[in-house]
Model the fold of this input.
Amino acid sequence: MIKIERLEIVNFRGIKHLDLDVGKENFVIAGRNGTGKSGIIDAIEFVLTGKISRLEGSGTFGLSVKAHGPHVDSAAVPASSEVTIWVTRGAVQLKLSRSPASATVVTLDPDDAQSRGVVSWMASHPEFALSRRELLKFVVGEASGRADEVETLLKLEKVRAVRALLQKVSNAEGKNQKAAADSLSSSRRALEGSLGSQFANDEQFTAAVNAQRLAAGLGPRNAFATRTDILSDDEGLLEVESTANYRATWLRDIGAAELSLTALTPEAFQRLEAAVGKADELAGESETVLALDAEKFLAEALRRFDGEQCPVCLTDWESSAFEELVSNRRDLSSRAKERLRAVAKELVSALFPFNGLNQTVSTIGNWLPRLDNSREFALSSVQAQLGETVTALKDVQSPENLQVAVAVATPTREAMLSALAEARQAVEALPLRSEQATALGTLRETSVRYEAFVRHTEVEELAGISAARAARTFGLFEETRNEYLNQVYANVQSEFARLYSLINEDDESAFVARFTPKGAGLDLQVDFYGRGLVPPAAYHSEGH
Amino acid sequence: MSDTDEFETVADRLMKEFLEKLRADEELATMADGLAPLLLGEGKVSESDLRLAMMESSS
Done:
C-alpha cells in the first residue's frame, strides 16, 4: 500500500496551484460542484501512472492528456503544468514529478532501482482511480458479479481460478466415488446371483460358499480372501467342467433380471419417455442451446470491454447499452442452465428404476458368449441399448450431453421380455448335471465374480479416500478464502461506512454497510437511516 | 497490513495461509509441498497439474 504525504499541483486540470499536506492519512475531498475535487484525483492518478482515466474510454473521443491535462490557461504551454507527489511504500520514501508535456517521463527523487520498482508496482495498480461508473459495479449488481469485480480489483484471479479448480476436482472425485460405489453394488449383486443367496457380512458369504463346496465334494474353508480360495484350479475337476455346470447359476441371473423387469411398471417407461421428451424439446431450442455455452464467453466479453468497443466485433457501443445487452444475454444463459438442470434431474429420477435391470442384464451379457458363441442373442443388443441409455441419461450437463441423451433408443419392455425369454430357453436347453457338477459350476462362476467384487471393493475404497481428500482440500481452501476475504471486507465495510457517514453527516450519519460472502459471490446490504439492511438499490437511486 | 510484508500480493498471503492449514492437517500435510510451487509461482494453474500435485502426495 502506498501512502501519500504531500501533493503539489501546478496548472493542472482545473487547478492553478494547490499544495496539500495529508500526512499519510486517509482523506476525503468535499466541496461544491466545479471546485476541483476530481482534478485532485486526476492529478494523483496522473503523477503515479502517467494516465488520466477520465480522458480515456467511452465519450472521450478527441481528448488527450497532453492537450487537456494542463489548466485551460496553460494549454499552449503544457510544460508549465506539473504534478509532484511525496509518497511512502514500506520503507521506501520518494518524490515523483510528472508533466502532461511528456506524460511517460517521471522524475524520481531518489532515482534508484528501489524507487523504479515502486513506480512499476503502482503502474500495475490502476485501481486507486475508480470512476463513478466503476464504483457502481461494486454497489449495484448480483453477488457473483460483485465478487468478480472485487477479486479482479484485488488481483485475486488466481485465487478464484484455484478455487474453481479445487471445486471441479472435488466434484469429479465425488462422481468417481459414486460410479465406483455403483460398480461395487453391481458386482455384489452379480456375486449374490451366482451363489443364489444374499449375504450381509463375511460370515454369511463364507457359509454360502462352503455350502457349495460341500455339495461339490470339497472341504470347507475358514475364509475367502482371493478367487482361488473359493475354488483353486487343482480343485476344478476339469472333467466335469462344461457350460452345463453353469445352468443353475445362469438361470438365477435370468430370474433376477426378469424380477427387475417385472418391477418396471409401464408408468416407469412412460415417465422415462416423458423426461426424454422434455430433453428433446430443450435440445430443439437453438437459442437456448447456444445460451448454455455462452456464460463464460459473456463474462469474458464484459471483462474485456473497454467502455467503447465490443471486444469481439470491434463495433462502437455506448457503455451502458453494451453492459445491458451482455447482462440480458447472461440472464438468458442462467435461465437456460436452470432448465437444463431441471431436465437432468428429471432424467435421473426417471432412470432410477432402470438401474437394477441394467446391472442384472449386464451380468448376463458377461456370460452370454460362453453359452453359445456362434449365436446372436437379442439380449446382447438389449444390453447394449440399455447400457447406452443409462450412460447417456444419468449425467446431462452440457448441450453435447443433451444431444447424446435425446438420441438414445431405450429398448421396449416387450423387447426385453422377449430377449430374456430367448436366453432362458437356451440355458434351460442345457442338460441337467449332477448336484456335484452344478456346485462346481457355481463355485467357478462365483470365483470369477468374487475377483471382480474384490477389485471393485478396492477401487471404491480408493475412490472414497480420494473424494474425501479432494472435498477436504476444497473445504479448507474455502475456509481460508472466506476468513481472509471476510477480514478484507470487514476493513472495507467499516472504512466505506465511516467515509460515507462523514460525507453525509448532516442526515445519514447512521449509515451502515455490510458485505457478506455468499458462496463464490459477495452480497452487499446497506442501511441509510436505521431502517434495516437492504440491497443498495432497493429503495434508493444509484446516485444515492 | 504491515509495511514489512506489503510487497506480497493479497493472493500470495491467502495461498500461504491455505498451505499452512494444509500442513497442519494430519491427512493433507503431504499435499502442501506439491501444491506450493503451483499456488505461489507465476502463471496459471492447470487442472492436470493440480490433480497431479494432489494425487501424488496421497500415494
Summary: Helices of chain B lie at 10-24, 29-40, 47-56.
